[in-house]
Every structure is written in C-alpha cells, then in structure tokens.
Specification:
By secondary structure, the chain is an all-alpha fold. It has one domain. The protein has nine helices and two strands, in the order ααααααααββα. The chain has a two-stranded antiparallel sheet. The radius of gyration is 27 Å and the shape is rod-shaped. This is MotA/TolQ/ExbB proton channel family protein.
Length: 202
C-alpha cells in the first residue's frame, strides 16, 4: 500500500484524506441510522397509554423527547394534546422538519465526497500527464520520469473512482433510509392525532 501511495505521488494525499473522512461518516451513519434507535417498536403504544392514563407531565414529555427521533415528534403532539387538530398537525410537521434535518446530518458531506473524488482523481491524472510531457526533452525521453507520470495518472484515477463508487452507494442508501424514517414518523404521529381526535368525540 505504501508503495502504491509513493508511486501515485502527492495528488493521492487529498484522496486519502477524503477516503478517511468518508469511511468515518459511513460508520457513524450506520451506527446512528438504525431502525431500533430511530423508531422504537413499542414507543407509539406507550405514548397512547400515557395519553389515555392522563399522566402527561413535563417530565414525561422531556423523557419522551430525549428517547429517540420518533419521541421528538410524538412529544410535540403530546405538548399540544389539548389544542385543535390543525395546531397539533402543525406542531408535528415543525418537529418533523427538525428531526429530518438531524437525520440528514453529514449526508451533504458524504455526497460532496462522492461527487468530488473522481474530480480529484482526474486532477491527479492531469498532474501525471504533465509529468509525462515533462519527461520529453532535447536528449529524448526520460524512462523513469515517464513511468512515474503514468503511474501518477493511473493510480489517482483508480483511487478516485474507488472512493467515489462506495461513497455514492452509501449516500443514496442513507438518503432513502432517512426519507423512509421521516415518512413513517409522520404516519405514526398522524395516527396518534387520530387517536386523540377520536377520544375527544367520545
């Protein structure tokens, strides 16, 4: 690996840095964006139980808000449980927007790396081509410099693509995952609003 880095020349260093950042962000998002952490299975039933028992206190709401992203959305509904239906839905939508922003954390950086890595590899290719042309002189071609220029060009192109492809796959995966989480949270919140509205009618 060290020999490859040395052969690829200095343009490989920004790519190595980008690969380290991308790997760290992918691991962090894989750990954070877990369904059990974002959408705890029993949370909705527990919130409905709290509502029906009438035990809605600031401590209960705060604990719910700190439990999970779904808890943040449902706590907004609990805070406005005595408000009209439209007010409840508006509070849910506002908290949902904040949760969506939190879930999308680092995804912009990941997408930027996926888009930028091939360009960084292309930059290394250009540097290698410059070295190849620089090997031409009045005495003929310098074989060592020519070989180095070719290696710089090829290694950087390959490394840029090797970073971009998996990063793009994970970026698309995380985007789809966040969208599905947000939709499911909104559905559960609206379901809770329906429970509250039905209880008022009765």
């Amino acid at each position: 690996m060290l020999a490859i880095i040395q052969a690829a020349g200095w343009p490989i260093w920004p790519l190595l840095f980008a690969s380290i950042v991308a790997t760290a962000l992918i691991i962090e998002r894989l750990m954070y964006l877990r369904r059990t952490r974002i959408l705890p299975r029993q949370l909705f039933d527990e919130v409905v139980g709290v509502y029906r028992s009438g035990n809605i206190t600031p401590d209960v709401i705060q604990k719910l808000e700190q439990s999970s992203p779904l808890g943040v959305v449902l706590s907004a509904a609990l805070r406005n449980v005595d408000a009209p239906r439209d007010v409840m839905k508006e509070a849910i939508e506002e908290s949902g927007s904040g949760v969506a922003h939190m879930l999308e954390r680092f995804l912009t950086t990941l997408g930027t790396i996926a888009s930028l890595a091939p360009l960084m590899g292309l930059f290394g290719t250009v540097v290698g081509m410059i070295e190849i042309f620089g090997s031409q002189n009045g005495a003929g071609t310098n074989p060592a410099q020519l070989a180095h220029g070719i290696s710089v060009a090829l290694y950087n192109t390959g490394f840029g693509l090797a970073i971009a492809m998996p990063t793009l796959v994970f970026y698309r995966h995380f985007r789809a995952l966040v969208d599905s989480f947000v939709i499911e949270m909104e559905q559960q919140a609206v379901k809770f609003v329906d429970v509250v509205h039905f209880s008022r009618k009765n």
